[in-house]
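Lab notes, practical 5.
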Amino acid sequence: MLDVHALTTSYGPVTALDNVTFCAPRGKVTAVLGANGAGKTTLLRTLSGLIRPSHGTATLEGSDLVRTPTEKMSALGLSHVPEGRGVITELTVEENLRLGGLGRFDRSKAADMERVFTLFPVLGDRRNATAHVLSGGERQMLVIGRALMANPKLLLLDEPSLGLAPRIVAQIFELLRSLVESDGLTVLLVEQNARSALSIADFGVVLNLGKLVVHDEARVLAGDEKLRHAYLGF
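Output from the prediction step:
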């Protein structure tokens, strides 16, 4: 599904990703883990075209992500939810969701919006409310719902649990798992909370100072005590 080979990205003289190679299989959750500064967010930004790598390749079902303009990523089936819950507060919930489907010209957008409201009932209750009245958890639901409106094959999620109550985090992670299992969605999940991420992931990628430490099944990473203590903080 997603194949990354020798990906290297720099900010001036600083190498943020250094020769990173891994794959994210179709219909699975792959967690990207590591301490602050490990290169996790840079990886997602590079894959979505916000930053151009200096070396290496990244392909989504054979399509070259490295040379694809950012505005055309959605057409390839890639949706990126950056850290920060970036909703447009002046627009209503429904208007925010419509933005996610702007690049689509099929007739199923209305049905997909109703499905988002089924996945996140609180958004359905507030579909005509402006987004500034939403809580942090509701805004996170909205940006995920907006990304789903693009009907992605691959969803890039950056720190969806940041600043949220554990109950809301559990709800969002449970939803992600159900989307993977029911729809075959592929998720690349960047998450500081390694324990929670590994609990729903199929595979894990551990980065340290831009370098790949290990890429293995999530259960193997969760069971490796030395690895957990050295890189994952639990």
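Observations recorded by the TA: The longest helix spans residues 166-183. The mean pLDDT is 94.
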